[in-house]
User: Fold this.
Amino acid sequence: MSDKITFTIDGVEVKAAKGQTILQAADEAGIYIPRLCNMSGLIPYGSCRVCTVIVNGRPQSACTQPAAEGMIVENETEELLTHRKNIVDMLFVEGNHYCMSCEKSGNCELQALAYRFGIAAPKYPYMFPNRSVDATHPDIFIDRNRCILCARCVRASRDLDGKGVFEFVGRGPNKSIAVNANARLKDTNLDITDKAVDVCPVGAIIKKRVGFAVPIGQRKYDTKPIGSEIEAQNK
Amino acid sequence: MSKITEAAIKEICASCGNDRDRLMDVVNAVQAKAGCVSDESIEAIAKQLSCHRVEVESVVSFYAFLSKEQKGSVVIRLCNDVVDKMNGVDAVAKAFEDELGIKFGQTTDDGKITLEYAPCIGMCDQAPAALINNEVMTYLSTDKVKEIVKNLKACNDPAKLKHRLGDGNNASEMVHSVVHNGIRKKGPVIFADYDKEAGLKNALAMSPVEVINEIKTARLRGRGGAGFPTGMKWEFTRAAEGKKKYIICNADEGEPGTFKDRAILTERADLMFEGMTVGGYAIGADSGIVYLRAEYAYLTKLLEKILQDRRNANLLGKNVLGKKGFDFDIRVQMGAGAYICGEETALISSCEGLRGDPKNRPPFPAQKGYLGHPTSVNNVETLCCVGRILEMGAAWFAETGSKGSPSTKLLSISGDCQMPGVYEFPFGVKVSELLKEIGAENAQAVLVGGPSGQIIGKADYERTICYDDLATGGAVVVFGPERNMLEIAAEYMEFFIEESCGYCTPCRVGNVLLKNGLDKILAGKGEPGDLAMLEELGNTVKTTSRCGLGQTSANPVLSTLKNFRSTYESLVKESKDGMQPMFDISAALNDAETIADRKSVIFKN
Assistant:
């Protein structure tokens, strides 16, 4: 007796264990559903909406939606690609993302997604927000210009490190990442070995002095597009 | 210097049982006492509640009525909703600025009076209106403003500003407010005379399952707008595993143009509590929470008094009305100024002392709601319907209305009409019939369901108000022939930008882009291609947003693009030189020209 759930993604039959999300099941099946806020090992959050799929005709975030028997999931459709591109465009214009001078370039998931989607430049006007940088910590700095508010650091610090260094303040377009101190990162108990320091998908949380240890051109997404590691299992 | 001592904060926290889940009550109390929740207060609260200071800061920074910066002992919140603007709020705003000698967002030099704007405060039928601390001021004029400011400067006590009190319970000692109920049309369900507590007595004579079946037979659907069948919601909550269950009354009506719950809370709170008690019995809950929007704080004394009367009469408490084993009580949870908290999972977050972020579904509140317990969240009006259904029977309830939408609906009607107010119409009423009754037959457009609903034009006036056609939580705003519907849409987009929680990308960013796109067109810089761009962007926001706010926030743009297309088309034009009209080369060169101290020879104006 198998307690596996069977459903389809773009017509392909996929098996899932009970309790697995659509995204987890897709990963195991070698089907890539683009995502930004989701990360294996962290509690699904559902904020970036890049992983939006159509489940039985209704849009759902694949990272939070549990797989269910007989579900019909659409993933790679023209319509969803348009929505996903629009969301990535939104994230680019919302912050100040200058890839050419960012030390995360090549390892950045936002940049890699844009390349995968064939986005050369965002179609929306830039907002050029005024955001702050906090370089007070001896080993780590936060550049809020590049933050996409995915809450990976919030979740990792709270749930994996047991610290709660990060949390959001403000709401709507004024939402930003704050630290558990009166003002500065150096007054928190964040440590270079914390998981929270390793999870940032973009160049918002950066370890000092190691940024260019791997030269540009030899980085994670310089040779293969994002998602190819998942799709490789399907070969 | 902080106006509150650490000892006072300790006392406030202790009065809330030093319970982290009660953070909303703590920060509300600190704000009320000190006029801010300063960094020192945040530190002290965190220490007392054993949580991280950034958690407290996160909550304080989320709600409009809370602030880290020091506010005056009197805070004037002038409502700048679209309807207030249509009723001349700009002149009123200028009068406030002139009389106080400050701009919006500022506090007078003596630190006494702060002037701010607020989105819809639920007084659109009496606009322009303002909240002065918890007191409501209605029908504002420049003359009234002069008098208000003079009095405030003299006594600094907003309670002394009131002259003629409103009707009904507004005039009671408990409310003591100038607000008018504005009930223009009474229907058979909500504002009709009824047999008090008969519904509750009937319910307690039945089994909980029978009560749920009665609600199902009546085909009652949620009155907040989404229209989920109430009986089904209760059935799910009842069936969910959990020792403790909750029923929450959503009294956070914040949709611009909505104020019908204000009238219920003032005149029919007893019926609402009765319905809630029936709900508690049906789902197996022993606790109820009324989540009351901060704008309606002037009603708390009345609600608390009615609750106490109910406890005294054993309509609440142990073994309600002698029903062995049915213990039930209700508490009031105050909000702090956040439209998003009308969304049921955001409301639950707020009750739990968190930011008003909606939660991921599944699990649904019926499975895991308030503090992880199965919870049913029902609208104020829905709960009143429950009381009447149990009193009069399901068949009586379903007699009026249309097939898919039985019974009546309260509508809050305002804008360009002769008789704004609260109306109880049977479901299925045509927009044209409604316009006739309220004195607005020349309307150019009608907003049905508030900005998250649809802006319709004349071609749609034969459509009906019901769940299957024009669904609405109750807001109806009428626009006369002289209004610019694009400007109206832009105003409503501004509202959504302000009220988005910012959790998900499309709502946080997309609404800003939609508003910017509209502004560009309104400024005469739009191109024909912009219309398709707005449509596509609007669809992305609608499809990919995480909760109901973002899934409907593009509606002002999408519905005007559909129903007022010619207005858009008359404003956009092909660019002559192939350059994007939105890019103003002269403006872009301005700084450089100033530095160089000469004008560009190529790009001349």
About this structure: Strands of chain A lie at 5-9, 12-16, 52-55, 58-61, 72-74, 133-134, 140-143, 166-169, 176-179, 205-207. The mean pLDDT of chain A is 96. The longest strand of chain A covers residues 5-9.
